[in-house]
Structure formats: C-alpha cells, structure tokens
Amino acid sequence: MSEIIEQLKMQLAAFGPNLLAGIAILVIGWLIALLASYLTRKCLEKTTLDNRIAQWMAGPGEQTQIPIERWAGKAIFYFFMLFVLIAFFTTVKLHVITDPLNALLRPLLDYLPHLVGGGILLLVAWIVATILKKLLAGTLRLAKLDEKVGGAIGSGEKPLLLSQALAETVYWLVFLFFLPSILQALRMQALLEPVTTLLNKVFAFLPNLISAVAIGLVGWFIARVVQRIVQSLLVAAGADSLSEKWGVAASLGKQKLSGVLGLVVYFIILVPVLISALSALQLEAITQPASDMLGKILGALPNIV
Asked: What is the pLDDT of residues 201-245, one digit of tens each?
C-alpha cells in the first residue's frame, strides 16, 4: 500500500504543476473571453452598421428584432475559448485532444490574415459610405429638394423622404463598389467572378445612364423656364381676361388660360426631351416602345390643341 501511495505522490508531484497551470490558463482565458465578448457587444451597440444589416435582412419598413450584438458577442466568446481550451489541454499534456483541435484550427489560422484584410476593407467601406451619405443628405437638405419635389416615398407612419432615399442608395452603392475588393481579400473566387462581371456591366452602362439623366434634367429645366415665360407673356397680354370675356374661364375651373397654355408648351418641349433621354440609354427593348408612345403623343398634340 505504501508503494502505491508513493507512486501516487510522485505522479501528483509530476502532474500537479501542469494541472495548476492549466487551471490558471482556463480561468484567465475565460475572463479574457468574457471581456472580449462584452467589449464587442458594447462596440456594436455604439454603431448602427449591425442594425442596418439586420434591417436589410428583414426588409425595408419591417421592425426587426435580430440580436446582432448578442450573436457577435457569443461568437467572440467561443472563438477565444477554443484557443483557451487548446492551451489548457496542451499544458496538461492531453495530446489526444489537442492534436485534432490543432488540425481544426490550422486552416482557420492560415485564413485569419485574409479575414482581417476583408474586415479592414469592410470598415473602410463603412466609413466612406457614412461620410458620403451624410454629405449628400446635408447637401440635399440645404438645396431643399424634398420641398421642391414635394415628397415622400411610401405611405407609412414615417414615409421616406427623397433626400433620405438618395442618401441610402449612395450608402449601399459604396458597399457594392467595395464588394469585389472584399471578396478578393477573403479569397472567395466563386463569388468574386459573378460580382465582377455584374459591376463591369454596370460601369459600362453608367455613361448611358448619366447622359440620359443629364438630358432629362436640362430638358426639364428648359421646359420649366419656357413654360413660365409663356405664362407670364400671356398674363401680360391679357389672355386670362379674354378667356373670361369669351366664357372659356368657366370651363377651365380653377386653372387660368395662361397656365393651361403654358402647360401645353411645357409638354411640347418635354416629350422630345424624354424621347432623347430614353434613346441615350441604348436599351432598345425597353426604350423603343416608350419612345414610340411618346412620339405618337407628340404627333397628336397639334390635333389636341
């Protein structure tokens, strides 16, 4: 019996320090994992990126309760605890457990630099998108775009203003433009090729879209100016008074004859502008029927007048 006790003492003396060191590693690592999880949750609560992702996943206008902060905190906790457990089992020399875990973690550690690179690019994209969004939203508010166009998009309790919609569009477009670089950093070639092809097509179509928008805006501005000039000239010439004498004003209701004729001139100018803008898109399958319809309207205007 004494020999057995002596052997147990020798085994305990040889294994005891490793066990105590392993327990210390386990406790300290557990505390560090809890701290990292807590800091991750707090950092995500200070930002709105995770809420935007949750809103995007749930769909516009939907109230979402996706706990992004809690999920991220748990993921960080278990990630740290995996390394802590490996360090614990290595310290107590349980290689039967550590060898499979090391084989599992080796590919993850090899991929970690790519993951960090993708995360940095995502952070840069978020910073650039946020700055551009705030600048565009502020500029559009100063230009009073919402008051000029009159409007809000949607019909809920909180309808989305046009300036907000444009700012949100620019915000997500920045992420779209950063997406190929992020996927390349993450070595996701299967996703990179279709995204790159899509963006190449978008960039190839972008000059046509800019031309169409420019033609439409310039034409709309000219049509507005000419409408106001014609309307002012008709008012100065006494067209509204003549319409009352001739009995036309009663049929027009609240509209004045000068306003109606100015609106006719406005559409006479605007219809060819719209045809030119649609032609600039160079999407014949879509724009040709619309152009033909506008051409028929333009041809029928003299008869309507």
From this structure: 878 888 888 888 888 888 888 888 888 888 888 777 776 666 666
User: Amino acid identity, residue 232?
Assistant: S
Show Cβ contacts of residue 218 under 8 Å, excluding neighbours closer than 6 positions: 273
Compute CA distances 198 → 53, 168, 174, 210, 234, whole Å: 22, 21, 15, 18, 52
- The tokens for 141 are 């508010």
- Of 266, 253, 262, which is closest to residue 235 (Cα–Cα)? 262
Max distance between CA atoms of the chain, in angstroms, equals: 131
- Please say if the pLDDT value at position 290 is more than 80: no
Report angle CA 271, 304, 247 to the nearest 5 degrees.
Answer: 125
pTM for the predicted model, two decimal places: 0.55
DSSP state of 43: H
Pairwise CA distance, residues 274 & 294, whole Å: 8
Residue 35 pLDDT: 92
More confident residue, 22 or 244: 22
Report whether pLDDT(180) > 70: yes
User: Which residues neighbour 84 within 8 Å (Cβ) at sequence distance 6 or greater?
Assistant: 25, 26, 29, 30, 32, 33
User: Does pLDDT of 64 surpass 70?
Assistant: no
Contact 257, 239 (CB under 8 A): yes
Token pair for 244? 């009352």
Token representation of residue 297: 């309207």
Task: Kindly state the tokens that stand for 77.
Answer: 């906790």
Both tokens assigned to 47: 């930002």
Q: Give the amino acid at 218.
A: V
Tokens of 64: 């979402």
Structure tokens at 44: 């995500």
Dihedral through CA 162, CA 167, CA 172, CA 173, nearest 10? Answer: 100
Return the pLDDT at 136: 87
